[in-house]
Amino acid sequence: MIVVVAALKGGVGKTTTSVYLAALAGPNRRSVTLVDADAQASAADWIESSDDELFERLNVVEAPTERLLAKALDRIHDDDVVIVDTPPAQERMLGKALDAASVVVVPTRIGGVETSRVRAVLEMVPKRMPVGLVINSARTFTRDYHDALATWAEEGISVWGTVPERVAIAAGPSGWLSPDGLDSYRRVWRRALRASHGS
Ligand SMILES: Nc1ncnc2c1ncn2[C@@H]1O[C@H](COP(=O)(O)OP(=O)(O)O)[C@@H](O)[C@H]1O
Ligand SMILES: [Mg+2]
Prior knowledge:
Bound molecules: adenosine-5'-diphosphate, magnesium ion
CATH topology: Rossmann fold
Oligomer: single chain
């Protein structure tokens, strides 16, 4: 199972989403690998510098070029779970990852431009591949948030979860994984699993 965390923009929570999903995929699985396809390697650095026990058995592969990404994805066995963190503004890399995906998670934030950027990513996702949004760093009490949810619902686009804005989540590698973050991303993980089994 290959879960691609896909966005064309930086700062929408791709790395945070990838790291939390990788942590949650862990405990019951034989093998979980996080493939970091961003040359910045922020997901790889995060896991390397964290003491969180949820990362204990996680494999990390840095694959910052199309060639390395293809290689990393080729090596996957049937029961492996792989989470792919993708770089911003690299359509070709993203396209390569999407071609190999079993399920796609699209992180976004709330805001006018964000909606059109999400649509651009959704257009790149192969037909019939399960895809869902995760709304990151959300202020769930705002009008904008509720309007955005209504828009996605009208368009038939699945929202697999909302992650509230939290200091503990923004702490990244310098803190433990946040209980709020784990709760929110657990819902996303379950939806992604269900969607991938249904396909
Ligand atoms: N739920 C959240 N609450 C607060 N800050 C968040 C949350 N999710 C992500 N962030 C912060 O937003 C910034 C961008 O997130 P990141 O995962 O690095 O995005 P990307 O990989 O898309 O560039 C980071 O500083 C991160 O800590
Ligand atoms: Mg990133």
